[in-house]
Design brief:
This protein has two domains: about 140 residues, Archaeosine Trna-guanine Transglycosylase, Chain: A, domain 4 (Roll), CATH 2.30.130; about 80 residues, no CATH class. The protein is about 35% helix and about 30% strand. The protein contains seven helices and seven strands. Strand 3 and strand 4 form a beta hairpin. Helix 3 packs parallel to helix 5 and helix 3 packs parallel to helix 7.
Length: about 240
Amino acid sequence: MTQTKIIPIFPLDLVLFPRQELPLRIFEPRYKQLIDDCMLGDGQFGVCLIDQNNSVNGWNAPKSIGTIAKITKCEDIGLDGLQLHIETVGRNKFQINKIIPPSLAPPENYDPYSAEGHNVISELHEKYDPSEKMYIQAEAKLIPEIDDDISLEKWEKLVSLWKKKIVTQALPQIVEPHSLDHVLEKYYLITDMPTIDYVYSLAALGAKDPNDLQPILESNTIDELLYNVEKLMTVK
């Protein structure tokens, strides 16, 4: 039976893959509310790549496929309690069935990085029912994980394509093969027993834009995943 649940949504300019770690600095009041609510609940929220072509009540809209992030650590930054540092790890992928818009739209000339912007949002929220949420929520369906094995032959092909891409993109500068092996070693990608997680990490190393990673996140079979990663790594 497919599991559906209501989750908070955090649109970001990145793609989070299952089991990858993601640290975040939280400073906007609406996302401070999101994290506070998560800490009172199961500590989980949805991370989605921003959909540049759409908005929700004036805010950045999320792509329809994302990853559940589980908070593993949360601490205040400074003494004012206005900023948080959290550490998270990716869990299941999910698909948004229905968006639940936030309670308020962004004020005119809103600057989320300024104290003035922080105060404006906080003052606006005080006019609403305290139970209403400033952040996007969604009814989401959890997506089963790909549990197939990756053969060493297919993994080595992906690594070879990645190396070729990096060397080509660096021209006319020369990239020595041993330096690429050092990069793989740094990210713990030297292995004789590759898994899906290795493929995700290699894809992240090979992408220039987070939108290049969205098709990989959306892959539902091992063949689709490998095809999309090969496509990403292939030099055009």
